[in-house]
Write a structure and sequence with these properties.
With 107 residues, the chain is α+β, with helices and mostly antiparallel strands. The chain is 40% helix and 16% strand. The two termini are 25 Å apart. The model has no long low-confidence stretch (mean pLDDT 91).
């Protein structure tokens, strides 16, 4: 069994993160509205306690692109977790994001 040491990190340097072509389209009207609402919430309450998930080397966003965009819009930092087990390929990122999004449905 593989043991993961999960570390939650924080940064205000949001330019370190990258989006991959397999990320959801966050330029739609629905996504822009969602980002705006999250950013308003962040301005009122501060940084969100829910970290985004990124890959190890290139820091591709796997989960949390709306939160990251909202943090950029609000001018605040963000918590993040580097998942060293996610391959930095289109398939690796897509498959990991799919699993994460499916598991959230059951919460």
């Amino acid at each position: 069994m593989q043991k993961n040491n999960i570390k939650v990190l924080f940064t205000t340097n949001l330019g370190i993160f990258k989006f991959h072509e397999v990320n959801r389209d966050f330029t739609t009207a629905e996504s822009k509205n969602r980002i705006k609402k999250i950013a308003e919430n962040m301005r009122q309450r501060g940084v969100l306690p829910i970290p985004i998930i990124v890959t190890k080397n290139k820091l591709y966003v796997v989960d949390g692109q709306h939160r990251l965009n909202a943090a950029m819009e609000a001018g605040l930092g963000i918590y993040y977790i580097i998942d060293e087990n996610i391959p930095e390929t289109a398939k690796g990122i897509f498959d990991a994001a799919k699993v994460m999004n499916l598991s959230l449905i059951h919460i």
